[in-house]
């Protein structure tokens, strides 16, 4: 899938100096990773269009093409006359893009958004890499995941076993996007509670909660100097990035945390593909905007 994602056709369009990335759930985390790579990306997860950012290029990402909140933002951007680029596998986002001549990145359909992650990240990374002359070697994401594959399988089993029976709280600074990804994957694949927090902000509030013996399991995605404080305060499970470029590290860590969620699902005898509550949430949200 990673190689196929590198081959997805992207439109011949250049983003403006700032990109406003709109996406939720599995379609949203790619925006956090793009920002984490140092690209000029602001991630927006609200259903209203921020008119004060109308000079930015709006990148609307909805794998299904049916995300109500994203469609609301696109509607507002069209009214404001903003530049829009869309990424989807179909649905109303594709239909609207064709009707309004919005540049479209069309990706293969039929996957859960969280499994389609390479198709959400890599084509946009290619487009923004060219727009901003960032000099990022896009293949590094795939190579990072492939290079650490065997060690990731071993480590993932170990971490999933340690998490089982406790509530994981995942922390990150440089790799905050990975902390969010791990939280989402555990929620959806394992049907298990998980939360995330940002370093160093948690040093000013959240760490005090560990004074009581709640059944929490802190996990630290290590990457910045402030993470050393988190490690000393909370004695977390530490996930270290391998050596390599930043994008290689993102690739390796994404693969690792995805595996952790799948092994936890296996321990819990949960089907990673089945969703029980999220479809109802989508239905209720869609009714708000009819």
From TrEMBL:
Keyword Isomerase: yes
SUPFAM superfamilies: SIS domain
NCBIfam families attached to this UniProt entry: G6PI_arch (TIGR02128)
Protein origin, superkingdom: Archaea
GO biological process, one term: carbohydrate metabolic process
Protein's name in the database: Phosphomannose isomerase
Pfam family, one: bact-PGI_C
Record flagged with keyword Phosphoprotein: no
């Amino acid at each position: 899938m990673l190689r196929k994602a590198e081959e997805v056709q992207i439109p011949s369009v250049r983003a403006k100096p700032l990109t406003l990335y709109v996406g939720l759930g599995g379609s949203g985390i790619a925006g956090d990773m793009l920002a984490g790579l140092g690209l000029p990306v602001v991630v927006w997860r609200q259903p209203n269009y921020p008119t004060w950012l109308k000079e930015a290029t709006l990148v609307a990402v909805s794998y299904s093409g049916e995300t109500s909140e994203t469609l609301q933002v696109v509607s507002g951007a069209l009214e404001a006359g903003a530049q829009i680029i869309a990424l989807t596998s179909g649905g109303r986002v594709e239909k609207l893009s064709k009707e309004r001549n919005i540049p479209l990145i069309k990706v293969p359909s039929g996957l859960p958004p969280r499994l389609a992650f390479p198709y959400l990240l890599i084509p946009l990374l290619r487009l923004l890499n060219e727009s901003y002359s960032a000099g990022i070697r896009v293949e590094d994401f795939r190579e990072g995941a492939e290079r650490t594959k065997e060690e990731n399988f071993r480590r993932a089993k170990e971490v999933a076993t340690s998490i089982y029976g406790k509530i994981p709280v995942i922390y990150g600074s440089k790799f905050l996007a990975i902390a969010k990804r791990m939280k989402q994957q555990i929620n959806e694949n394992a049907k298990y509670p998980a939360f995330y927090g940002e370093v160093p902000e948690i040093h000013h509030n959240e760490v005090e909660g560990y004074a009581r013996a709640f059944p929490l399991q802190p996990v630290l995605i290590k990457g910045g100097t402030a993470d050393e404080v988190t490690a000393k305060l909370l004695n977390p499970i530490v996930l270290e990035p391998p050596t390599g470029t930043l994008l290689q590290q993102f690739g390796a860590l994404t693969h690792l945390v995805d595996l952790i969620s799948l092994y936890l699902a296996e321990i819990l005898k949960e089907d990673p593909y089945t969703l029980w509550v999220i479809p109802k949430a989508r239905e209720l949200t869609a009714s708000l905007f009819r």
